[in-house]
Queue: 2 jobs
Job 1
Amino acid sequence: MSLTKEDIEKIAKLARIELSGDEREKIAGELSAVLDYFKKLQELDTSGVDLNLSESADVSGNRSDESVDSGIQEEILNNAPAMEDRFIKVKSVL
Amino acid sequence: MDVEKLTIKSARQLLDDKKISVKELTEASLKRARDLNDKLNSFVLIDEEGALKAAEQAQEVLDRGDGGPLTGIPMAHKDMFCTAGIETTACSNILKSYIPPYDATVVARLKKSGAVSLGKLNCDAFAHGASTENSDFGPSRNPYDTDYVPGGSSGGSAVAVSSGAVLFSTGTDTGGSIRQPASFNNVVGLKPTYGRVPRTGVIAMASSTDCPGPIAKNVEDTALVLAAMAGADRKDATSSSLPVQNYLESLTTDLKGLKIGVPNEFFEEGLDPKVEDLIRKAISQLEELGATVEGVSLPHVSYSLATYYIVMPSELSSNLSRYDGIKYGYSVERKKGYKAQNLQAVYEHSRSQGFGLEAKRRILLGTYALSAGYYDAYYKKAQQVRVLLRQDFDRVFQKYDAIVGPVTPTPPFKIGEKSSDPLAMYLSDVYTTPMNMVGNPALSVPCGFVGKLPVGLQISTRHFDEATALRIGYAYQQATKFYEKSPKL
């Protein structure tokens, strides 16, 4: 499985990461090697495998949908890069 | 006081007999941590003020007669655990200066136990790695030979214990990141069963395999710390409500009646002959202690590494999407004079500038594996193979109480030896990733040296049967005493 620079560019866009031309080429090579290694999984017959993802029967159930005051609003907002009044400021989404 | 010669058990005795005070123990530990950090780089943050305050409170508790096994014991946390009010970075520039608003559940529990935290420990950034060479704050160094890696990702955690700065530390094990550095440092490390110890407040890597766990100098100390960390948490829906056992009660000095399986597949090509020699000697020792040892097969285990390196990056790509320069962490919106054109640019530039190369590699790998058209071939396939792997383990554990084998294929490697070849680094996880894929607990105990460099024996047991793993580790440790050796520093 050989990834090209263009493949990497597409994936990078999805991942919201910008790479330089050199980085793109280097990573394409590295990831292609890793993906080659994964080809061995195709050797296995998994047609009968039911993907039941719940491992243990130990499910504690849901809690009631009640809100609780965390008391840490200031500490949370202190980490924000850009603020206006008590709002975290972001660029236009539209 | 030679703080590096203490264990939790011996320190407990000295504190309870009032031969030393918590303040003295804390100051001696802080001094050792500071003195060694230029050489070993195991701490990314030493919180002297916080440690002394905690020491004062611990002493008050002891004086009242309310102390527990960990009251006043010096320790530190891997920098993947959120510590309220104290910088937590996952050793990545993208979280430099991030101050968590809350403690991770494990942090809160260990605080409550009276343990004294000295600060935060170095790791590969976002726990991506097996050597700490991916830390954005420099690698840690193996105290047994500083040209060599201490392992990873919980390298700083293992070094802080093996160098004698703390008596225990916390780590996380997603693909081997507690066991491998423990084995490289001649200390004990436990990956608990997935769900035994809550992940609340632990910076997420792969949510279906992350396991917070203890690192300590010996098995009985490790058991004590596990007892303080384990237990259900309403804030972690994947945490188990099964009762926490009394692990110390299960420690014995013989293994009569136990059936141990040795997976043939762990002794194939790729295992260093010197490591194999030590592991085989250890297995003979287990027989001498009374265990019945037989060869077993885990037919799908050779596919485990490939499943891990699909499942983990996929989950990680989702978990790392929160680092977007908006709510916290590195952001171009903080950069003076920097004008990001639009929201997309804020995301792209903040992430590209904040993340290290390995994080980017893994995010891209995961994004690719989950993208439209590839999900079936990669992530779904890997999850199906994971079920086959689980069936292998369950089948063996019907007849056997434990499986044993090597932790890593080689002894510690030199700093720089594998860092330019990501795939070579990934291959060092070959014996540890299976247990992460199936959720079973696994312990690494010291089992000898190749030259100056430590090697560990891996012991894995049924789900939620940490007690048997600790029992086997303890009996082995008492018969061999490798853990008593410490590095010349």
Note: DSSP finds three helices and two strands in chain A.
Job 2
Amino acid sequence: MATSRRGFVGGMSAAVVFSGGAAFAQKKYDDGATDTEIKIGHTNPYSGPASAYGVIGKGIEAYWKMVNDKGGINGRKVKFVSLDDGYSPPKTVEMVRQLVEQEKVLCVFNTLGTPTNTAIHRYMNQRKVPHLFVATGASKWGKPKEFPWTMGFQPDYHTEAAIYAKHILANVKDPKIAVLMQNDDYGKDYWEGFKDGLGKDINKVVRHVTYEVTDPTVDSQVIQLKDSGANVFFNIAIPKFAAQAIRKAADLNWKPVHYLNNVSSSVASTLKPAGYDNSQGIITGLWLMDPTDKQWNDHPEMKTWREWMAKYMPGANTEDGNYIYAYAVSTLMLETLKKAGDTLTRENLMKQAASHQKLRVPLVLPGITVSTSPTDFYPVQAIRLARFKGETWELFGDVLSAEST
Amino acid sequence: MATTETAAAADAVARQAATAEPPARAAAVKPWVWAVVAVAFVLPLLKFVIPGVISDYRLFVISTMMIAAIAVLGLNLLTGFNGQISLGHGAFYAVGAYTAAVMLDKISWMPDYYFLTIPAAAVMCFVVGYLFGLPALRLEGHYLALATFALALAVPQLLKYKWLEGLTGGVQGVVLLKPSPPFGLPLSEDQWLYYYILVIMVALYFIAFNILRGRNGRAMMAIRDHQMAADTMGIDTAQYKTVTFGISAAYTGIAGALSASAIAYVAPDSFGFFLSISLLIGLVVGGVASLAGSIIGGVFTVLVQNSAQALSKFVKNDLGLPFDLSAYAVYGILLLILMYVMPLGIAGGIVMAWRRLRG
């Protein structure tokens, strides 16, 4: 009797489950997703040598706050767990394991730094946890074959430098190139890409000098570059040194065709201190809008961004491009989660991340869109060249891209 | 386990503090130490019983604590027991880690015999430490601290140097594989790693205990307390100081090699200057010249750095206070309070409290 009743109850509940499954849209969840919540993990250097990037984490946190205030994603609130790794790879491993194994997040998003992401690269892929839109300019994050759970975000340094090289070869007659480079991984990444872009024309580089971040100035380096008789100058430097180099070149009355890396494209932190007069005609590659560039002041996306900054990040520096970055990358994450709908499994999330088609992400330059596919794990891979004119960048030419893998 | 060890550590300190007693009385390993070791050995197996409490992640965190404890012990041998201050032990940690990483990366059969990296790192760091100890003989106190400081700053730069780049991978570092359990044991990688590190840690503590309780240990401490007096008594101070430097570096280097295996990745950014400082903080907070204090220090360096961020978030979000304290500010405040309340470190503080309670 007891047995048959149990059988009956079992049969009934199976029927209920079955009909329920048929009646409602199927909801499927992995760790970190429920009917009411989506849990996203993140690491960022809030302390330590790279803590200037900590504002990205704060910006992303404020972004999810806005999303939740507006009702969340398909009725689910986002729980954003952000931990400090101090830019130390062992710490990143520990923190990300905490996120995945203790907090049980659905995915890990926009973890910052090349060495730190390298440390967790294999772990994320062994665990099969989405490792999405990482915040690094290195070129190794889009390898869906070996690492199907990791996806990059921004155009990498390598691609950018290759684009400059090709532009030089196509537009400058008889180029003699001088290169100033910061002597670390970031500088070397640019330099490698530049060499790849030049190809057999590598001998066009007549002078290549480096500086250390700890140097007081780059004056002597710029003098050496000028003495080489170069007519093209590729400036791979962070804003402080890029501005010094621009100023020194002007003082020396050296007027090469000047290519400035995107890292230093901020008007407020590079070109203004270098002097607008000295900066005329400099060429750079852009992909995000610069909050200090007046031409975007009336752009609706920039206006929305400023309203968001005023409401959710009161007192924060509105000249800091990192907040633009945070807003843009978070929107891409939001769109990916929206597309996943009620099937919030890790596999589906990767599938959605790898199927964006010409998606417009706010604050990315007009004309650049996000496209991904199961074989293309580079969301933003294009830049636009711009020439400095007056007090602002003037975009010219088409959207450019170069395959760097 | 952290709490068990802390409690256990208290007794160890009590024993250590009784240095006035004749060494013979402190000679034998007390039964409670064996109890602690037994608990430590059983702990990972509890994962099969209570997987919610003893998870792979927690075992991994305890493993990193044990690694830190070994590194702090190395520094303690030098600073606590021999009186030479080092601000640069992160450098030896890095040398140990890179020795292991390069071996695992470049020698094809090495990943199957990963335990060989431990003696190799120990020998390598002993040699480097011994050689560094030679010129350091001429430097006392603050000058030695500065010289070691320079070492800590130089090593990450050297690792990026272009002639070494082929070996060290430059700024990109070296990606490794985690050691897997041998003989098809039904353990997870983290359980196995825990045992691997625990066995090495117990062995290293046993060796340190034996060095310190014998005539060599007395000589080391005599040099710390009064070098000229030690010299007069016929102790070869130069020899003792350089060898201590070497042993200390070897201990810290072993910790580095273990961390290379545990993290499965090494890069210059892993061995920044703050590593050296956090080892020194672990030493001072745990208890200078205390073996058990080194364990407390290792636990502290991992635990408090992590909880500082949680605490700063708690202050901001849950208490609703209008401070945006950075984790480091919280860390600093905690350190200040700790040093004020327990000037002899946690181990020393517990001994003091114990004595007061007993009258």
Note: Chain A has two domains: 17-154+299-374, 157-286+384-404.
